[in-house]
Amino acid sequence: MKIREAALDAFILLIFLAGFFFAYFKFKSAYDYALVKNLQFTPLISSSRYENESLFQTEAAFESLPQGPPAQPQLISPQDGAFFYNGPGNLGVYFHWQEMEYAASYTIRISTRADLRAPIFKEIVKTNSFVLTGKRALMLPETVFYWSVMQTDLEGETSSYSPPRTFSVGLLNK
Q1: What is the helix (H) or strand (E) element at residue 3, kind and residue range?
Q2: How far apart are CA 151 and CA 128, in angstroms?
Q3: Fewest CB atoms within 10 A around its CB: which of 46, 60, 71, 147?
């Protein structure tokens, strides 16, 4: 009798683990992870109670993405009008902006024009920061630059670009 109960308990554990792995692989994309909250499996049977009952009850709370285009990220640093030394020992320019809840990626663009058309630099990144380093930073001419960021959400919708900020690069702070 003890062997039968132990075998039944092992079977229940096996079914529980199979359900867990099914849910893990079913909701494996970033989109699904962002939308599924509190996925739980509750065993409904024990070794003494198992006839005509489901083995597990699955409960999942789904959250939908906000409707409409995503919001613009708010720029954090560099502050508007910041100056960066562009010579030996230059460590680059660090850009940081507000992390958006459903962002899949961000696009940062840098231009010498206030309207940010014809950017001299444009990159898609997965995090809410970016460092312009090395040769790319040293190649920036001594001038004023404008930078802005937009986000792309999990459904591929894009925000408008954030209002631009300025920074300048040079050998001396004029």
Answers
A1: helix 2-26
A2: 9
A3: 46
Residue 60 φ/ψ, nearest 5 degrees: -140, 135
pLDDT, tens digit (0-9, with 9 covering 90-100), for 137-149: 656 677 888 999 9
Q: Residue 31 corresponds to which tokens in the numbers above?
A: 């989109």
92 vs 105: CA distance, rounded Å: 22
pTM assigned to the model: 0.61
Tell me the two tokens of residue 4: 């039968």
Spell out the domain ranges in the chain: 2-62, 75-170
Cα angle 115, 112, 100; round to 5: 60
Give domain 75-170's CATH superfamily: Immunoglobulins (2.60.40.10)
Residues in the chain: 174
Angle CA(107)–CA(25)–CA(102) in degrees, nearest 5? 25
CB 124 within 8 A of CB 107: yes
- Measured between alpha carbons, how far is 22 from 25 in angstroms, rounded to an integer? 5
Our CA dihedral for 148, 143, 134, 80, rounded to 10 degrees, sits at -40
